[in-house]
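Aggregate trends can hide what the representation actually does to any particular protein. The sequence in question and its structure tokens are set out directly beneath this paragraph.
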Amino acid sequence: VQYNVYGNLFEVSAKYVPPIRPVGRGACGIICAAVNAQTREEVAIKKIGNAFDNQIDAKRTLREVKLLRHMNHENVISIKDIIRPPRRENFNDVYIVYELMDTDLHHLLRSNQPLTDDHCQYFLYQVLRGLKYVHSAKVLHRDLRPSNLLLNAKCELKIGDFGLARTTTETDFMMEYVVTRWYRAPELLLNCSEYTAAIDIWSVGCILGEIATREPLFPGKDYVHQLRLITELIGSPDDTSLGFLRSDNARRYVRSLPQYPKQHFGSRFPSMSTGAMDLLERMLVFDPSKRITGNLAA
């Protein structure tokens, strides 16, 4: 069955019926809501047009499908279905059916919706709960940011977009470009070729700070500026915090940067509860081996 949604052709199986309405546009394609005629459940259908034209995008799509097929957790988005084309020779567009969520954390933080400390704690709890599950499956998400944390009207949160995720057993995954810069851990900014689940914990710290202030914590213009913003808040690392850097050049570079003392988090985040602030300080640690783990945080 074909539908025209704002000039985009949606070709889905008869199982999915109107009302069909656009609900968003992701990096890969347009997303529409539709109704599953069998269950009467509203779902989100993502169309990835010409999915096989670009090898990198095709790999992202395949990776997300492969990983999410095996995941089943309240705080991780679930794939309901993949709509197959009527004929294999016409297989150009991929349609993935997800559970429908109402918004994402990025849109919520940019809105005028007031958020209490209870909201903040509940969002954080759900992110860490979902992440603990993902990490227990030996998977790193590698692209945690507010727009990838999906929400519904009941404030239930689910981690989405696993297009950059990797299992820790993959050997080629360490060197690729990962994580939107603002949420990128110091070890990634310094081109550390071996990294761990601690990169996701750093991203959660950045998100926690953003929930508290409604503004990105480290909105760097480039990676040098990014490192400066980080050290201005958490202080410049001493030599004992640089042991994770294998490269002498990287260590020399960090030592050559302007030195900053650690800011008082109480002044920077006056509305944050003591418990949340303590957790934030243990997440935003320069040395990944000293960063709190997902198990302890959750």
In short: The CA atoms of residues 53 and 150 lie 28 Å apart. The chain has two domains: 2-99, 103-297. The radius of gyration is 21 Å.
